[in-house]
Design brief:
Layout lengths: L2 H10 L30 E2 L21 H10 L5 E4 L6 H9 L2 E6 L2 H12 L9 E5 L5 H13 L5 E6 L22 H16 L2 E11 L2 E3 L2 E3 L1 H10 L3 E10 L10 H11 L6 E9 L11
Parallel strand pairs: 1-9, 2-3, 2-5, 3-4, 5-6
Antiparallel strand pairs: 6-10, 7-8, 9-10
Helix pairs in contact: 2-3, 6-7
Length: 296
């Protein structure tokens, strides 16, 4: 088909004849001006974490509830199912309960799992959703099978979103467990272990649905280690397309709390910049490739 014929074909088709795009959220775009709370910019300046309900910032390394809230509003509908591969103290599970999303959480730490259970039980469930938390390694087939069982329990064959907020390598050691990403022996090992999580849980995600990665970078011996971009490549390698990179401000970092002047002196003397941001990366799972029919 020539370019002119292709253009003609496009202009002669009517909207009713075109296949409608699959709706992945509950937003009514006729009322788009009403959604003031939904952020659409790539710079998120969140002044303080949401501490309403069962949310708390006491678990070292957890992320602000606004992240799962924003991403679930954009990339899921009520009744959809989200899998959180690094559940921590249950931030995603609590937000899912608030928003009417089923959530399956996985975490290596039994202590974190027990804390999450307490906080989920303390959260009202007005939408009647299922919220499950299990102790396990998100790289393991066993965890994937258990998650699949939970999906079937809520009438789903696959999940509609995957949320991943891994350790930022060895900045915080979360456990003594060998499979803990915070115990990876090198940056390369960390990225490999993380990519294994994507490969494993990615199988449970519907094609053309979204994976959200929350990650920050780090310094090692004066060298900036770009964990965000290294893990980004890991996700892409598993059949995902990068849709957006959000830069979010970091406030109230416990490691730097009340020592701002000391860190400023260190930055000036060492020639580096103090981390004040992390990334929220959004990926879409690619459609499976069509199989070509063999010639008879």
């Amino acid at each position: 088909m020539t370019r002119s014929n292709a253009l003609k074909a496009d202009t002669t088709s009517t909207p009713s004849e075109r296949k409608p795009a699959r709706k992945i959220n509950d937003l009514d775009l006729k009322r788009w001006k009403d959604y003031d709370e939904i952020i659409t910019d790539s710079l998120w300046m969140i002044p303080e974490r949401d501490r309403s309900g069962a949310h708390s910032g006491d678990y070292h390394g957890n992320f602000v509830p606004q992240i799962p809230k924003q991403t679930m509003l954009r990339y899921t509908k009520a009744g959809d199912c989200v899998i959180d591969g690094f559940a921590g103290s249950g931030t995603t599970l609590i937000e899912g309960r608030n928003l009417g999303r089923h959530v399956i959480g996985v975490d290596l730490s039994e202590k974190a799992v027990n804390l999450t259970k307490e906080r989920v039980l303390a959260t009202p469930n007005p939408h009647g959703v299922s919220t499950r938390i299990m102790t396990g390694d998100s790289r393991s087939v066993r965890s994937r099978i258990k998650a699949l069982h939970y999906l079937h329990h809520v009438g789903k064959k696959q999940a509609q979103m995957v949320m991943l907020h891994p350790p930022y390598h060895d900045i915080i050691q979360f456990s003594e467990t060998q499979g803990d990403l915070s115990n990876a022996q090198s940056t390369s090992d960390f990225v490999t272990m993380f990519t294994d999580v994507v490969a494993n849980l990615g199988e449970l995600l519907e094609p053309e649905r979204h994976l959200v990665l929350v990650i920050g970078d780090k310094y090692t011996a004066g060298e900036w280690i770009p964990l965000g971009f290294l893990t980004m490549q890991g996700v892409i390698s598993q059949g995902f397309t990068l849709k957006s990179i959000v830069v979010k401000n970091m406030t109230g970092n416990r490691a730097k709390r009340n020592v701002e002047n000391l860190w400023r002196f260190r930055a000036l003397s060492g020639g580096f910049y103090i981390f004040k941001h992390e990334y929220v990366m959004v990926f879409k799972k690619n459609k499976p490739a069509r199989k070509c029919k063999s010639a008879s």
